[in-house]
Amino acid sequence: MASALDHLTGLRDADDRYDMPPAEIMPLQIEAANERLETRIGRIPLLKNRAEADGITKISKPADLVPLLFAHNTYKTYSEPWLIDGKWDRMARWLQTVSTYEVGDSRFADVEGLDEWITSLEREGRYVACSSGTTGKPAMLGATEADLEFGPKANVSSFSWATGVKPANDRHFFGLGPRTNVTRNERIRQAMVDAFGLEGEVPYQLPIPPITVGSTMAMIMLRRRIADGTARPGEVAEFERVSSERQANLDAAQSDAVNALVKARDHKLLLSGFFPSLYPLAVGVREQGYSGKDFQPDTALLTGGGLKGTDLPPDYREFIFDTFNLADERVFQMYSMQELNTPFPRCRAGRYHVAPWVMMLPLDAPGEQLLDATEREIEARAAFFDLSLDGRWGGVISGDRVTVDFRACHCGHQGPTVGPEIVRYADLEGGDKITCAGTIDAYVRGAA
Amino acid sequence: MSSTMDTDVRVLRAPFFVRGELVEGDAVRHTSRDLGADFTTPTLDLDSVVTPRSELPPLLGVKLSEIIEFLVQTGDALSLERNPYMQECLDLLAATNPLPRRVVENLYRTAPQLLTRESLESMVTANFADPEALDGWVTRVDKLGNRGHLRAFPPRMVHMLAGNAPAGCIASIAQGAVVKAINLFKMPSSDPFTTVAVLRTMADIDPSHPVVKSMSAIYWTGGDEAVERTIYRPQFFDRIVAWGGGPAIMNVIKYLGPGIQLISFDPKSSISMVGREVFESDETVADVAERVAADTTIFNQEACLASRFLFIEGERDDVERFCAVLAERLAVDRPFASAVAPSLPSDTRDEIEVMAAMGDAKVWGTFDGRGMVVLSEDRPVDFHPTNKTSNVVLVSSLEDAVRYVNVATQTIGVYPWHRKAELRDRLASAGGQRVCRVGTANMHVPGGPHDAMYALQRFVHWMGDDDIESEATLVSGDSHWTT
Questions:
Q1: Which of the four pLDDT bands, split at 50, 70 and 90, describes residue B8?
Q2: What is the average per-residue pLDDT within B203-208?
Q3: Which of B265, B346, B351 sits opposite A436 (nearest CB)?
Q4: What does the pLDDT look like over B390-421, one tens digit per residue?
Q5: Which of B115, B214, B85, B220 is nearest to B161 (CA)?
Q6: pLDDT, chain B, mean
């Protein structure tokens, strides 16, 4: 008989995966969580420390998992100077502390730069994704081949679930956002192209050089040096020049994308990109005199994430949808986070559905107590245990404030759902805060 | 901000004080940002808090000595035992402010010491070469016989009070009174009470006193554009004084322009530096560890002058011994710190756990708010130590540690004392603002600068009146005139 874990992850493509009453599935999830705990406790030192500190050897109810959850910041706990000084052995030992990676005989003496370090880890079957934020310290998330197998397929299947679009290889695929050379992201993209893209066609990609992890890191390191006061004016000027050059390249690439979209307007399309990337393209298409009536009615869209601090007009969504003739039901909008391996698709009722192999753990604002969402919708700090994760511990506390409801959704499906209002706790701090205590980070201008 | 748990919450009332009058009402409901407690205020009447420029400041004709006399009386009347307003504030603050009640109580007891004649007079003499300029026009004469008259004219000021120092408003009130300003105090959501309590105390002494008439204390949600866009204009105010950094300051910066200046006490961190001399005896280890602990725990480390990093010279074994003693001393109850502070945020806890698991840090103490010492390998930790956490960094010499000092470094406590003088020029060059004997970060000799500036002379509107007798002066002066 298959284990609880195999059973749950085996639901990846099942028709009824978003139709399981939480109370019924919970015992199976607990059993699977114990399977994960047993096999991971000896492999993730941080997990072992946690379990020992709290005297936890077995999970018998969801609340038992709370002390074992890792804050999302855990994947940023390496020391930035190790990157700056190229201490790759140190970085590898850190990766081993927070994930199932084993350093073993690996040596990184000849490695030059972060990109090379990541490449050498990939040769060992360890894929490190690095978040692309340029303001703070980026998260470094290790994953295994199994994670890269599961995650992209889960994306394809939840896309189909949410949009009704079958993987029939009948669409022109348009990658309309900046591309990163992070293997995990590339695999997801490839899985979408393989499933939906026209056979034999090279999909369209916004023509700008891919953002490498190393170049993201270089910006972050410069920011650090500016804070330390060790960056010279010439370096700061060079940074500003590169930033404006990037913007100019992006503008040129977007006008190329507008032309390509207009040219392809008679075809079945699958567009992929976040709203801030799509909005200027919609403006460009309108400027050329085209709009919704010129595009095919079955255009589909793959998108997610928030507005990331950009300043779009309030009707940005309608404007984009009207421009490309997008019907709400063929828009795949998901909620997820880089610390997980599973997307939560948005349903017709506008809520995000949590898959049965992921335990939704709504917490209080400090992230200490499990809250009950079985009787009503509640506001909570989002935390999850993604049972599908192989290379890392699946339990993560996010920085997001969400609304959670374990009751059946208005769309008719069962299982826990997350409401459309998602805000980062960090953003809620705005406005009122004034304190005399602070650090040099508040003094760095320009490189943010 | 809406809350799903707004039943059964006692709503606190925060009245305003506008140009000498108490304004009560509960038309507007707010939520304090730190503890999420609800409080109500009257409707904010913007017309009432802005004094038209056609009106002269109420304090213009009042002698400085008279103002100081009134402030001294206020200091006396603020005595917690006898002051019902301050007593009530203690209860109110427990709901909105993260500082423990006992610490707030001690702050209320000690802050009025600022309102002594000696302290106020030294504030004036340290800031103004000729304090007479505050009371009237003072005249100087150049070699050609031209006379220049000068007055430190009262400004119109907004004081944005910091949320982490409930008694800080007393210093701001004193500063505003001494420069005879028309003052508008913007209270923080974690303490929308204390300023009004102090001003009511003043009004009880003399409701018609010009000091009372030139003070208003109100609340609005920081960043509220409807308020800030309207009043942050040079037509209404000359100066905005901000005690601290954070999003509130970033909001204010949008409204700066010609005629309206920001005087900002920027967000700061503080450190300690201990030389190898500490290991001469067990007694000095005990004494210096206690002193570092005292500096580290000020306001449970919420204050800018609370030490967060300790750079120390010595052998590793000795330093580890020092760390153990320091951890014990962090856990002690103090006038301005609790034995058990709020526990460490989970992200910091994660960082420390990972460092410990990797063997990169050795840790003393606990995560529960009693205090922690993190001895890190060769450099300071990446995170910002809070909740009574000291990051101890072993250095080969204190001179080496200067590289970690920057413009955000406020107070540097040093042991032994004589090494202060050896280090202070390099510390100043790196951006540091004050050195002191370790253990005395929270004590000051009256009349000193704050954050490397004398702020009061920047508050006032320096008005000149020139009587030119010989026109030769015109070309010999400031190049500004010829451009």
A1: very low
A2: 97
A3: B265
A4: 999 999 999 999 999 999 999 999 999 999 99
A5: B220
A6: 91
Last residue of a domain, one of B218, B233, B266: B266
Residues in A closer than 8 angstroms to B407, CB to CB, are 440, 443
Is the pLDDT reported for residue B77 higher than 50? yes
Beta partners for A188?
none
DSSP assignment letter at A76: G
From B90, B22, B19, B86, select the one nearest B58 (Cα to Cα): B19
Query: Is position B456 within any domain?
Result: no
What per-residue confidence (pLDDT) applies to A245? 87
Subunit contact A438:B268, Cβ cutoff 8 A: yes
Query: Quick check: B188 contacting A, CB < 8 Å?
Result: yes
Q: Min CA distance, B302 vs chain A (Å)?
A: 7
Neighboring chain A residues of B251 at a CB cutoff of 8 Å: 431
Q: How far is B33 from chain A (nearest CA, A)?
A: 7
Residue B213 structure tokens: 């008439």
Q: Out of A321-325, B211-215, B249-253, B321-325, which region has the weakest mean confidence (pLDDT)?
A: B249-253
Cα gap A33→A387, rounded to integer Å:
7
Q: What token pair was written down for B77?
A: 């009347």
Domain that holds residue B122: 12-266
ipTM: 0.78
Q: What percent of chain B has pLDDT over 90?
A: 72
Q: Which of 3.40.50.12780, 3.30.360.10, 3.40.50.300, 1.10.760.10 would CATH assign to domain A1-74+140-448?
A: 3.40.50.12780
Contact A296, A269 (CB under 8 A): yes
- Computed over every residue of chain A, the mean pLDDT equals 89
Query: Which band of pLDDT confidence, cut at 50, 70 and 90, is reported for residue A308?
Result: low
Residue range A71-103, pLDDT digits in tens = 888 998 998 888 888 899 999 999 999 999 998
DSSP line for B69-129: HHHHHHHHHT-TTT-HHHHHHHHHHHHH-SS-HHHHHHHHHHGGGGGSHHHHHHHHHHH-S
Residues of chain A in contact with residue B246, where contact means CB-CB under 8 angstroms, are 433-435, 438, 442
In this structure, the answer to whether residues B74 and B104 fall within a common structural domain is yes
Contact by Cβ (8 Å): B372, B327: yes
Which residues 6+ apart lie within 8 Å of A52 measured at CB?
Answer: none
- Cβ of B155: how many Cβ atoms within 10 Å? 22
- Enumerate the β-bridge partners of residue B364: B373
Chain A residue closest in CA terms to B345: A366
Nearest chain B CA: its distance from A275 CA (Å): 26
* DSSP states along A309-321: T----TTHHHHHH
SS3 for A20-72 is: CCHHHHHHHHHHHHHHHHHHHCCCCHHHHHHHHHCCCCCCCCHHHHHHHCEEH
The pTM of the full predicted model, rounded to 2 decimals, is 0.82
A-chain residue closest to B431, CA distance = A229
